[in-house]
């Protein structure tokens, strides 16, 4: 194909999405490729009241960019990989990711975290059923409430509503430089598969673009996120399912910790597996099969019928 100059980079128009797209643009321009941003709004950006899992499908934040690729309105699309379906739509691919940012979930609070230790009732906000399920598993007496919107909107809602805290992905607040001092890292909470990873999608037929994107691809992040998403795909959970997975490389080994969670936090099945990097292929699938055999299948069936 003839490469369009400038390369049109599709992105959602939130501050965080634009930051991520600018990061991709900067990496490509460092390779001598001229680029321009094309911003769009997704249904998930417009409707800020409906809980994410009630949209009834995966890809609510990404489909609009896929459609723009199909229509040749853009050349590449920048996604938060955790929002992207584990199976790319026909004719599209994710050939590259940037180096992963912070993967952790955090609790932003009002300065008083005594509610975490005293057994009292409390209200914690999040729009993620994965976070709700894990939070309920640890703090069964707490109430969770829905929280939607961009990161700035969610921080404002936390302050206005007087909730005890709200759960965020650390990467989002860190990237747009609004990470509050009043936060704690939830190192016990398993993040969403590929949380903190910026992905770049394009049309499969555009081999020249795929070659260009390979120059900015971060191989370790590509490997770990692929394993996490393989786990998610095998347990048949969409991006709104209560499924967590985190793969970390340590020297010549890679460890995957992953699991599925009851919606009300009453049960969970989590496994942790370590293999050599040479044997990393199939790790996500193997962990998923083990989770399903240990009771995860029953949990996922309940979720499907909920």
The rough form would be described as globular
The mean pLDDT is 91
- List low-confidence stretches: 44-48, 50-57
Strand content: 15-25%
Helix content: 25-40%
Order of helices and strands: EHEHHEEEEHEHEHEEHHEEEH
Q: Which class do the helix and strand fractions yield? A: alpha/beta
Query: What is the count of helical runs?
Result: 9
Number of strands: 13
The radius of gyration computed from the alpha-carbon positions, rounded to a whole number of angstroms, is 19 Å
Largest sheet: 5 strands, mixed
Q: How do the strands of the widest beta sheet line up side by side?
A: 2-1-3-10-4
Distance between the termini: 47 Å
Q: What would a concise description of this structure say?
A:
The protein is α/β, with parallel strands linked by helices. Helices cover 33% and strands 24% of the residues.
Summarize the structure in words.
With 306 residues, the protein is of the alpha/beta class. The protein contains nine helices and 13 strands. The strands form three sheets. Strands 2-1-3-10-4 form a five-stranded mixed sheet, sandwiched between helices. A five-stranded mixed sheet has the order 7-6-8-5-9, sandwiched between helices. It has a three-stranded antiparallel sheet with strand order 11-12-13. Helix 8 crosses helix 9. It is globular, with a radius of gyration of 19 Å.
